[in-house]
Structures are given as structure tokens and as C-alpha cells.
Write a structure and sequence with these properties.
Number of strands: 9
Radius of gyration: 62 Å
Shape: rod-shaped
Distance between the termini: 149 Å
Number of domains: 3
Number of helices: 14
Order of helices and strands: HHHHHHHHHHEHEEEEEHEEEHH
Strand content: 5-15%
Length: 390
């Protein structure tokens, strides 16, 4: 029994002392890498250490390499395949497999960083050369195809020849498109139709508003305020020896008081304030606002009697007339008052008659000249209490 135990121990020691031998492929790969590194003149420290390890492996593990006829499918699966990620087309990949020559340094198994980098560089050089060759071949094929198309003689088929024999008028008669009235239009056509209707309606509404506003503004348009018509009516009917007519443009005092004109006479002093409104006027003597309407339009304006009264009193204070100063509000011809015409309101044709109605002498001619000089004075320096009331 002890003999058998001693025999097993000796056998196990012998087997353990014998190094494991590599196969032929691995030994050939180590030998090829060793030759490649030895042929390199510029060796780094890591490459020299690699050469030392390769020499040791070849000396110990490649003394009697085992012969393996075939490699298992699992080993094939672990081997790297170069170019499968770059070329997806099977035909191009087959051409790449035929073109590619695996570098010696790209061995399987354990590999350091420097050898892996050099392997990748050499593979990249081969891939660039293959892509250049492939691009050149593609350009050559395209050039050949275009040359064949240009050089090819045009062939007219029987169908094309029969089309050339058709009469254009007959073709138009048989192939003219027919308009279907009951055909429903497209969605965008209907949308454009309704949109055009909406836009036309909006334009018509805006034009109507503009026309209405123009008519309304024309009815409310403020005419230039002037004393010309009243002056013509007074000068044509009054005696120039007894009556002196002073318009606003000739008197700085009248401009400051906003009075359109003054008539000086021995029978009194008459101030004229002209109003440009026309139409039917609803006059409320006790109210502050009057209402005027004409041709469907209406407007409110301040009571002119109050302002005329205040201006006449200030004029009397400025020229020193203690009495005999009367105020008249003049309207254009054709004005109608409702419910009746207020006192001191006249149109242009009635102003002269109102002035001539007073026949009792109040002032002498010397006083009239004094009043006239006061009207023609450059400025009277109206105080704050004598400012114009509007």
C-alpha cells in the first residue's frame, strides 16, 4: 500500500513539473510577433519586456506544440472580426474580407496597450485604402453608366409612334376634363370662400362707418367764426353818420374780450357775438347747454347768452360806459329756435333792425369818440377779474 502511495506521489510530481504545451497556432502567433518586434529598430522598454516574455513562452510552452485540426465554434465567436461595424452592406463586407490582410501584431489572447494601438493603426490604414479603392470603383461605374446612356440610340416604341399620329383636336375632344358641378370642393377651398365673405363684410362695414362719420363730422364741422356777414348787413342799413361799426380785427380790446364786433351810436353800444351753429336749436335760457340738430345729427354747445352778457359788462367797465351797453347774439340765416327765439338772439338779417329799434339818445358824440379811442387802444391790461368768459 505504501508503495502505491509513493508511486502516485512521484507520478503527480512529474506531471506537475511538466509545463503545459501550447498548440501550433499559438506558437506560430508568438513567433510571428517576436519576429516583428525584433525587426523594429526603435524599441521601448515595454516592447523589450514583451520580447523577453515571448522568448520565455516559446522556450517553455512550445517545445512540443500540440496539433489541433479545427477550432471550436466558441473560439471562433471570441475572435475579433475587423470591419463588421463599418461595412453593413454584405457585398461590400465580402470585398473587405477579401482585401483585408490581418497584421502580424494583431494576435489573439493577451495583448498589451502598445501592441493593441499598433494593431488598430494598421487596420485603419488598410480600411482607408479599401475605402479609396471602393470610391474609385464607384466613380468608374457611374461614368460608364452615363457613357452608355449618352451613346445609346433612342428607341421609339409602337405606343409612342401611335401617339404621334393622333390629331390634336381629336385628342382635346376625347381627353378634355369635364367639370362636375355637384363635386364637393376641397376643405381649403371652402375655407377660402368663407374667409373672403368675412373680409368683404368687414370692408363694407368699415366703409359704412367711414361714410357715416364723414357725414357726421361734416355736419359738426366748425365753420370759421367771422363778423363779415353781420358787418355787411349793418353797413348796408345803418347810417354811417350816426353809427360806428368796429370789427374785432381793428380793436385789441375786442380780441381780448372775444367779442366779434361793436356798434357805437348815440342810442347805445351794441356788442355782437357770432355763433356758427345752424339748424334747429333747442334754447334753454336757464340752462348751461343748448342743443342743435341738423339732418339727423345733433350737438350740444354752451349757452351763448351767458358769455355774451359777461363780455358786454366787461367791455363797459373797460371803456367807462356806465349804461347803454347791450349784448346781441348773432346766428346765421335759417336758424330755427325751439320752443321760441330767446331775447337778444337774432340772425344776420335782423341785427340792423334790432339796432335801429333804439332811438332815444344816451351818449353825445364826444362820448362816442372817447369810447372809440378806448376800443382802438393797444392794450388795456385786463386784470384777473376781467378775463374773458367762454
Amino acid at each position: 500500500m505504501n508503495r502505491w502511495i509513493l508511486f502516485l506521489l512521484i507520478y503527480a510530481g512529474c506531471v506537475a513539473s511538466m509545463p503545459t504545451q501550447l498548440d501550433v497556432n499559438q506558437c506560430d502567433r508568438y513567433a510571428s510577433e517576436l519576429v516583428f518586434l525584433q525587426n523594429n529598430s526603435n524599441l521601448t522598454g515595454s516592447e523589450q519586456a514583451r520580447i523577453t516574455r515571448l522568448l520565455e513562452r516559446v522556450a517553455h510552452y512550445c517545445q512540443s506544440p500540440s496539433d489541433i485540426g479545427h477550432i471550436s465554434a466558441k473560439t471562433h465567436a471570441r475572435q475579433p472580426v475587423y470591419g463588421i461595424g463599418q461595412f453593413k452592406d454584405p457585398t461590400v463586407y465580402q470585398q473587405w474580407q477579401a482585401f483585408f490582410q490581418k497584421p502580424i501584431i494583431c494576435h489573439h489572447g493577451e495583448q498589451n496597450f502598445q501592441s493593441a494601438v499598433k494593431c488598430a493603426e494598421q487596420v485603419a490604414v488598410q480600411r482607408q485604402a479599401f475605402e479609396a479603392q471602393l470610391a474609385k470603383k464607384s466613380r468608374q461605374n457611374e461614368h460608364n453608366r452615363r457613357t452608355q446612356i449618352i451613346a445609346a440610340t433612342p428607341i421609339i416604341s409602337e405606343s409612342v409612334a401611335s401617339v404621334n399620329t393622333i390629331d390634336p383636336a381629336e385628342y382635346k375632344t376625347h381627353h378634355s376634363p369635364t367639370l362636375d358641378i355637384n363635386q364637393e370642393p376641397e376643405h381649403f377651398a371652402r375655407f377660402g370662400f368663407w374667409l373672403s365673405i368675412v373680409l368683404c363684410g368687414y370692408v363694407l362695414i368699415e366703409l359704412g362707418k367711414r361714410a357715416f362719420n364723414h357725414t357726421s363730422s361734416a355736419s359738426y364741422k366748425t365753420k370759421k367764426r367771422g363778423f363779415r356777414r353781420t358787418y355787411d348787413a349793418l353797413s348796408s342799413k345803418l347810417d354811417k353818420k350816426k353809427y360806428i361799426i368796429v370789427p374785432r380785427s381793428m380793436s385789441p380790446l375786442l380780441q381780448e374780450l372775444d367779442i366779434d364786433g361793436v356798434v357805437l351810436s348815440p342810442f347805445g353800444i351794441f356788442t355782437c357775438v357770432c355763433i356758427h351753429h345752424e339748424g334747429d336749436i333747442e334754447a334753454n335760457i336757464s340752462g348751461e347747454m343748448w342743443h342743435v340738430s341738423k339732418e339727423g345729427s345733433s350737438q350740444f354747445f354752451l349757452n351763448p347768452l351767458n358769455a355774451s352778457k359777461i363780455r358786454a359788462s366787461k367791455l363797459a367797465d373797460c371803456i367807462g360806459a356806465s349804461c347803454g351797453v347791450r349784448h346781441i347774439v348773432v346766428f346765421n340765416n335759417g336758424v330755427r329756435f325751439y320752443p321760441g327765439r330767446p331775447a337778444n338772439c337774432f340772425d344776420n338779417s335782423q341785427v340792423a333792425i334790432e339796432v335801429m329799434r333804439y332811438t332815444q339818445c344816451i351818449f353825445s358824440y364826444e362820448q362816442l369818440r372817447y369810447f372809440e379811442q378806448g376800443l382802438y387802444a393797444a392794450s388795456h391790461g385786463l386784470s384777473q377779474s376781467r378775463q374773458t368768459a367762454s
